[in-house]
Design goal:
By secondary structure, this protein is mainly α. Helices cover 64% and strands 0% of the residues. It has one domain. The protein is built from 15 helices and no strands. Helix 1 runs antiparallel to helix 4.
Length: 380
Amino acid sequence: MEQEPVQTVGNPANLDVHRSDTVRRRTLPALTGLRFLAAMYVILTHSLTWLENRVQFPWPIKIFLGNGYLAVSLFFLLSGFLLAYTYEAQIVGSKNRQRFWEARFARIYPVYLLSLLLTFWFQRGLRLRTQIAVLTMTQAWNPLAREITGAWNYPAWTLSVEAFFYVTFPFVLPWISQRKTATLRSIGTALLAVSVFAHTPLMGLNQWPVGPLKFIPLPIWRIPEFLLGVVLGLYFLRRRLASSTARDLKVVLIVAGAFLALSLPLGPWVSIVMIPFAALIYELSQANNWLATILSTRLMVLLGGASYAIYLLQYPVRSWVKTIFARLPGIMQPLGTPLTPVFLILFSIAVFVFFEEPARRVLRVKFASFKPPSVRESKL
């Protein structure tokens, strides 16, 4: 995998940034490892029914496992943080905006399309307008057609929301970057308050406001989380890294706070988890604590790189494993479900190494070949 100023971010989409294109900044591998944990948290939630039929969990663990959908908010925070960290002062003018969008497309669309192709056998009755919306990644943009938001490949709705973030990011980043540090803190505090008190992490396919608010597109509801990540990334760039033995204890307290928020019967106020999520990203970026060390290992970085595929391919892999194992001898059939996560991880690593990364490089070359030499030689 070629070097990047930032290791990849999920959610769930990877960053695609060449050192020759951007200001050189140190890598943040711990955030890549964090993506794998977030992706697996989602997988656990989707497997909860099967687990509950076999294991009697204490109620805090049961609540914790059921809240895995909140990892989507962590993905949105990570996306905003790392895009701001990477592209600060790098997106100026229409040419650079176009290059940013090309890089985003090259990074996320190949695996996105692969997930749709692998799922199509199980979703052959889709209407043409639904297919077009999903293929163009706009299925979550139309509040008048909410029924198509989770169509074709259920987790893909979050990529539709991410696509909206990518469209707005090149216009928002320059404005936010010009704010003073004190103003950044105020904006970040306001966005955090909106996320918590408006319960934005709960806004998804299973919860949508009623009344006049129902006409607000889903990406608008989730954009405070992304923008909070953007502000946090810019703030991180302006702060000098500090070394302190107290950081290990701080990370323990942050992780404990996140676990408590995800394990208590808080109802809609589970959105308070945005506070430890934001703190966790910031502390892991410091790369001077025990958790950052664990998440920065080669294995965790590899798994984090594959986490985008893990997230998007969970439904097609689960469906194909179920179909294949149903045709095996009876003694083998019960093994399909517990082995699915193993197949998913191994298949996703292969997709990441042999398809996702090569496809990204090919698309970047193709996009560059369409430009005149003067544009090809320009740098972000």
